[in-house]
Design brief:
Order of helices and strands: HHHHHH
Shape: elongated
Number of strands: 0
CATH architecture: Up-down Bundle
CATH topology: Ferritin
Structural class: mainly alpha
Length: 225
Amino acid sequence: MTATARRPVTSDAAPAASGGRGLRAVLLAVIAVGLVALGGALAVGLGIGRQDAPTADSVDAGFARDMSTHHLQAVEMANLARDRSTDPDVRQLAFDIAETQQNQVGRMEGWLSLWGVPVSGGEPMSWMAGDHTGHTENGLMPGMATEQELAQLRTATGTPFDVLFLQLMTRHHQGGSEMAQYAQTHAQEWAVRRLASSIVETQTAETGLMVSMLKERGAEPLPAP
C-alpha cells in the first residue's frame, strides 16, 4: 500500500486577523485625529485656552449674561402657558419656546463658566454701545414683562390668558432679537455670534407666527419695545 502524501496544512486566518487589526488601528488613528481636530475647533470657537478670552465687560459676556436672564423670563411664561392653556397651538408653541431657550441658557452659562466670568452681576445692557432706548422705566431689558404683567398672566384664564401670553411673548421676542442682532455683529467669539444669529432667526419666525395667532383670536400685538 502506498502511503498517501500529506499536503502541508496552511491557513489564511492569521493574515486576515492581522490585516483586520491593522485596518482597525488605522481607523482608530483617523478617528482620534478627527476628535482632536474637532475639540480644537470647539475650543477655538469658545476662546478656551486663549489669553484673550472674553472679559466680564465684553460684548460676549454681557450678551451671554443678559440674554440668559432674558430667556429665563420667557421660559417662565412659556411654562405657565404649557401647563395652563387649553389651546393646543398655544401649548405647542410654549413647549418649543421653553425647550429651546432653556437649552440656550445652559450653553451661555457654560461659556461664562469657561471664561471665568460670573453668571450674574454687572450693569444690564452696558455691553451695547450708546444710550439703549429699549430700557423701560423699571430698568428691565428690552421686551421683558413687568412684575405687574406677570401677575396678570398668572391669574388670567381661557382665551384672555392665551391672548396675553402671545402679546407678552411677542414683545419679549422683539426685544430679545434686538439684543441678539447687536451680538451677532459685535461679539468676539464665533460661537457667540452663531448663537445670536440663531436666536434672531428663530425669534423672528416665532414672532410672525404669534402675530398671526393673535389676529386669529381678534387681538393685536403690544407696542414694540
